[in-house]
From TrEMBL:
Keyword S-adenosyl-L-methionine: no
Biological processes, Gene Ontology terms: cell wall organization
Protein name per Swiss-Prot or TrEMBL: Pectin acetylesterase
Transmembrane segments: 25-44
InterPro entries found in the cross-reference section: PAE/NOTUM
EC number from the UniProt entry: 3.1.1.-
Source organism phylogeny: Eukaryota, Viridiplantae, Streptophyta, Embryophyta, Tracheophyta
GO MF assignments: hydrolase activity
């Protein structure tokens, strides 16, 4: 026991009892009985007050089964390989019974017949390879300590198996025997119809969210989501690590722009993109949120690390731009970066903040731009809301999102540059 903590006299607490008179013992016994009764009644009262919450959070399994879309076959809404897409869902309870949180899974994109053909042999292209059960954590958790504002909502994890952020169209499928199904938009439409039919049509509150490619899908489809919901519902969208920048790589090439061009043309994505943007630009540029975010009418919250490791490794410093591997160690762990490399990364951060300057002025917008070497941060308890979660202005991501969604206060948090934030959760790819 630390020196500054008090200890009982030698012999322990019960040695005191022997030093008291009979009268004192009687008074102590009655007092103790009253205290125990009060404590017991307090526990009973508290448990009754929280019965609804406790009954559900104690009995709901962390493992949530996969539900295939019931009308996948009827609507021809298929994953890349022709299997049925689906979702995982936990019903809301108590005050959250008529509130819905949808989270779109991430997982990149495929931009060629070859990469899509490889992808269809994985869980990102076929439900045949998906886990039959998944754990819900972070913003999908039913634990109020981990997910204070949304724990009792209807929570849905949407599985991603089309390779184009739920924006592909069958008109672009190949008729030459290549068995690839580009049905992303059909999958999303069928899924939304199913959720509406099982209760979402009477939602009072709704939040569409997504991570990475799912975050991009959230931005692309946000206003469409708003349109299908009740007019008087509070509907908003949250994109986690979905704001992909259209930046040159370190060799001066537009690697990501070229990649997106192939994705959009391969799967006919332009039909799902913002119409105003497509009218004025090459459609593939409208796959970048910076080109259409100003046109989104529904309130948006952006969670994005300023040093997003996926963007650093694939947009800023793809392998082709670093033929000698001089950035290899830096890409594994940001603490390995030398001063010159950090200066380049600070430039990437500056580009993000400059691109978001107009969005920041939107009174309905929210943002949490931290200086961490990480990617998605909302689906893990460690980064969403825990004692050790990243914080800006002493707010976790969960607290910031809650402030914004419920209009408790303005939530536009921008971190100071790396390495100033000691609460950051930084990935280290050099170990494990």
């Amino acid at each position: 026991m630390p020196a500054n903590q008090h200890r009982p006299p030698r012999g322990g607490i019960f040695s005191w009892w022997r030093q008291w008179s009979k009268k004192e013992c009687t008074i102590a016994a009655v007092t103790l009985a009253v205290l125990l009764l009060t404590f017991t009644l307090s526990i009973i009262s508290d448990s009754r007050t929280n019965a609804n919450t406790n009954t559900h959070t104690d009995t709901i399994s962390e493992w949530v089964p996969f539900t295939p879309l019931s009308k996948a076959q009827q609507n021809a809404a298929f994953c890349l390989d022709g299997s049925a897409p689906g979702y995982h869902m936990q019903r809301g309870f108590g005050s959250g019974s008529d509130s819905w949180l949808l989270h779109i899974e991430g997982g990149g994109w495929c931009n060629t017949i070859s990469s899509c053909s490889s992808r269809k042999r994985t869980a990102l292209g076929s439900s045949k390879y998906m886990d039959h059960q998944v754990q819900f954590s972070g913003l999908l958790s039913c634990n109020p300590l981990q997910n204070p504002d949304f724990f009792n909502w209807n929570r849905v994890k949407i599985r991603y198996c089309d390779g184009a952020s739920f924006s592909g169209h069958p008109e672009n499928e190949f008729k030459n025997g290549t068995k690839l199904f580009f049905r992303g938009q059909l999958i999303l439409d069928t899924l939304m119809d199913e959720l509406l039919s099982i209760g979402m049509s009477t939602a009072r509150q709704a939040l569409l969210t997504g991570c990475s490619a799912g975050g991009l899908a959230t931005l692309i489809h946000c206003d469409d989501f708003r349109e299908i919901m009740p007019k008087d519902a509070n509907v908003k969208c949250l994109a986690d690590a979905g704001f992909f920048l259209n930046e040159k790589d370190i060799a001066g090439n537009y690697t990501i722009e070229s990649f997106y061009l192939n994705v959009v043309h391969l799967q006919g994505v332009s039909r799902s993109l913002n119409k105003d943007c497509v009218a004025r630009s090459e459609p593939s540029k409208c796959f970048f949120p910076q080109e259409f975010i100003r046109s989104i009418k529904t309130p948006i919250f952006l969670v994005n690390p300023a040093y997003d490791f996926w963007q650093i490794r694939n947009i800023l410093i793809p392998d082709a731009a670093d033929p000698h591997g001089s950035w290899h160690q830096c890409k594994l762990n940001i603490y390995n970066c030398n001063p010159n490399q950090l200066e380049v990364l600070q430039g990437f951060r500056n580009s993000l903040l400059k691109t978001l300057s107009e969005f920041q002025q939107n009174v309905e917008a929210g943002m949490f731009i931290n200086s961490c070497f990480v990617h998605c941060q909302t689906w893990m308890a460690e980064t969403w809301h825990s004692p050790s979660s990243p914080r800006i202005n002493n707010k976790t991501i969960a607290e910031s999102v809650g402030d914004w969604y419920f209009n408790r206060k303005t939530a536009k948090h921008i971190d100071c540059p790396f390495p100033c934030n000691p609460t950051c959760y930084n990935m280290d790819f050099g170990h494990g």
